[in-house]
Design brief:
Two copies of one chain form a homodimer. With about 450 residues, chain A is of the alpha+beta class. Chain A has helices at about 15-25, 45-65, 80-90, 90-95, 165-170, 175-180, 225-240, 290-300, 325-335, 370-385, 395-405, 415-420, 445-450, and strands spanning about 1-5, 30, 45, 70-75, 95-100, 105-110, 140, 145-150, 160, 185-195, 210-220, 250-255, 265-275, 275-290, 305, 315, 315-325, 335-340, 345-350, 360-365, 390, 410-415, 425-430, 435-440. Chain A has two domains: about 10-90 and about 150-335, BirA Bifunctional Protein, domain 2 (2-Layer Sandwich), CATH 3.30.930.10; about 360-450, Anticodon-binding domain (Rossmann fold), CATH 3.40.50. Chain A has 13 helices and 24 strands. In chain A, the strands form seven sheets. In chain A, strands 4-10-11-17-14-13-12 form a seven-stranded mixed sheet, with helices on both faces. A five-stranded mixed sheet of chain A has the order 21-20-22-23-24, with helices on both faces.
């Protein structure tokens, strides 16, 4: 078997096209409103995509909330009081500098690498129409989506779609502490949608205007911030490796002084080597007491804690782990993609870790007669009570294996002539291609063990 | 034990206040942006609320998607192409008639029961300022939230927050069929947020502007619509009863000709007797071929199927089951609420079915010494690997039981003096108050059995 894994050192431009195409073909990701020509950089998750994301989110939730006694979950609304964004600094500072071409009316980020010369000066050249001196000086545009609550579009009713889930945690932190009897240090975890009106979205589900975040905010004493930062930084990398992601494609990137967000004292990205290069998909940030101080000042509500030993008041520091659910889905898809030659034939396979694969087993009657479909249906129904399975009787067995290889299904179960004699089935391993005969009545425990569940 | 259940015949106005208060106290639901005075009719789910909703949503997903071979899941984006809403009829028809008072500037739904007289005529009386003849004639306002994609607020970039998740299913249905190899009849299920700019939201989490839907759209041959409608109508009622909801508080309501939505041939609501009266929380609708026909016409893409027997082309009919996740959460909370007298003391208890209760067991050391806390922590850690548990050593054991009663926790496990001698603990049943001694090393299997898992 000749496995063609991507060269670690070289990004593969064509791979993205292949991934997008496979994602549509197998039902991972569809272009949103495709029958209407699509909506720019918005994507819908199909039957396999929704299960992959569910598996990733459930795994994160279990590790953050269910398996720990010091983290609580919440689910705050997307719509929040506009003062939240005033206090957090997003209203004033969550902006990108934009440049217009006065001739062709195209709009660019001021830092767009295609622009030659300084925008606003006579020698700047528009990267689309090619005219010089037609680009305006940069102007700041806020990235928050704005909408209107109540029936009239009047200034009093302006609300924003949250650009990060974190603020929903901050404004609820005292309520959570009181209800759950937690004490510092403790954390609050949340999974939810956020929206950013990006000027240049792209790279499939990597940068989209609507996206899902998995954020955890850990509240600590100010003097313990660095210890907790280190702990979470390491813990997050360990978690990603537990998904089976190639460690050689994972790295930390520390933010330099010029990269730090307005709220951050220290920030490390966890980057993955995507086909389009190294990019961040999770950030670990020491947000200090910035957010809670601002909310205390702005709301007039005391958001302090009292040190049980010194009896002094303090505003907790916050260590944030902020993971993009869609980016993580792209990481595991890109990491799992393989093109291989098997017995003289090409195959495409998604070598997803069995724990996160959407379908755990395909079930195939070798032919559509001699009782095989009935037997295969019974096998399927038995397994379905425990994990997602897929019945397929369409086309040659080779074609059916290939479809499930592309879907990332770790096991293929075939009901054949021998099954009718001795009630055993073959179980094919997606990665090694090894086939093993297993008694049908032992399939559940056999698969449960191999799936590690 | 003197159980005070609500009188079936009489709505209980005070009960809503009690529920809202308990929901905050125990961490089910908080007012959004509370430190800023709240945002009108927007609510955040706290640690217990998020688990309750997860349990309800997971149960629905399992029954719809995982346990059936004829339904696929998807997760479409909230932002869709604006043409979707033109075709679906929402842009033109998803409106409420509103009336303004020219004097006090208040705004009302034209059908507001407090308005005396015909709005727009000299004898109509404003229900707030009391002036007559000051109400305008009704004008139509669209209930969709509008926002702007891209950096400028120009007409071309107007998009809407979806007012229902259903359309995300319709525009993807061919892609789903192709990827999943489904054939008519089959269904597509989805859980996701939707937004409606309601003029009169209210009743806690019953009618909110941001809400979560659990919708399933079942695609059938036109001539089989009535059979499938009946099947789904009955199946949905059975599912709600499986959550332990009082059957006497559940009923069907058939839409009369004047109530039917523009797309519906037949519609049945499933209603619950809330403290504020009988109200719908799920709808089963025969949407006919309305939506797919409109999308076919509007997009120019063929959305037909071919009958395998007659070879004739047809556009599938759609049977929709549309359940509000927040309304369902309110149903189970209201249904579970009890005030009781126990041994001369009042207690409030949420008698949630164990399968949907956020915390499965509270673990309490009787006193904070003699090794009891250490033993209780070990018990807690063992159980936490399997289900959510809560450790509490604060206050008298009676107070701790009461807190978990209010939280809806079905079992209370106490580590006491005898535990130190014989390694048994007491398990208290939330509903019967019966206490049983169970060996600590048998707790996992004992609870798993009683939780039915």
């Amino acid at each position: 078997m000749n496995t063609r894994k991507r060269d670690i050192a070289m990004p593969d431009a064509a791979l993205m096209d292949k991934l997008v195409s496979l994602a549509k073909r197998r039902g991972y990701v569809f272009q949103s409103s495709e029958i209407y020509g699509g909506l720019g950089s918005v994507w819908d998750y199909g039957p396999l995509g929704v299960e992959l994301k569910r598996n990733l989110k459930d795994r994160w939730w279990r590790s953050m909330v269910h398996e720990r006694s010091d983290i609580e979950g919440i689910d705050a609304a997307i719509l929040m009081h506009p003062k939240v964004w005033e206090a957090s600094g997003h209203l004033a500072g969550f902006t990108d500098p934009l440049v217009d071409c006065k001739v062709c009316k195209n709009r660019f980020r001021a830092d767009d690498g295609r622009i030659k010369g300084e925008p606003g000066t006579p020698d700047a050249k528009c990267p689309v129409c090619g005219n010089t001196g037609t680009l305006t000086a940069p102007r700041m545009f806020n990235l928050m989506f704005k909408t209107f609550m109540g029936p009239v579009e009047e200034a009093a009713a302006v609300v924003y779609l949250r650009p990060e889930t974190a603020q929903g945690i901050y404004v609820n932190y005292l309520n959570v502490m009181q209800a759950s009897r937690q004490k510092i240090p403790f954390g609050i975890a949340q999974i939810g949608k956020a929206f950013r009106n990006e000027i240049t979205p792209g790279n499939f589900i990597f940068r989209t205007r609507e996206f899902e975040q998995m954020e955890m905010q850990f509240f600590v004493k100010p003097e313990e911030d660095e210890r907790w930062f280190e702990e979470w930084k390491e813990a997050r990398m360990v978690w990603h490796r537990s998904l089976g992601i190639d460690p050689a494609r994972l790295r930390f990137h520390e933010h330099g002084a010029d990269e730090l967000a307005h709220y951050a004292k220290t920030a490390f990205d966890i980057e993955y080597q995507f086909p389009f290069g190294w990019q961040e998909f999770e950030g670990i940030h020491n947000r200090t007491d910035f957010d809670l101080s601002r909310h205390q000042e702005s709301s007039g509500k005391k958001l302090e804690q009292i040190d049980t030993v010194t009896k002094e008041r303090f505003i907790p520091y916050i260590i944030e782990t902020s993971l993009g659910a869609d980016r993580l889905a792209l990481v595991v898809l890109a990491d799992a993609y393989r093109e291989e030659e098997v017995a003289g034939e090409q195959r495409v396979v998604l070598a997803l870790a069995p724990a996160i694969a959407p379908i755990k087993a395909g079930v195939f009657p070798l032919v559509k007669k001699d009782g095989m479909p009935e037997f295969a249906h019974r096998v399927c129904d038995d397994l379905r009570r425990l994990f997602p399975v897929f019945y397929d009787d369409g086309g040659s067995i080779g074609r059916r294996y290939r479809r499930q290889d592309e879907a990332g299904t770790p096991f293929g179960i075939t009901v054949d002539g021998q099954t009718m004699d001795d009630q055993t089935v073959t179980v094919r391993d997606r990665d090694t291609l090894a086939q093993e005969r297993v008694p049908a009545d032992r399939l559940v425990s056999y698969l449960a063990e191999r799936l590690g569940s």
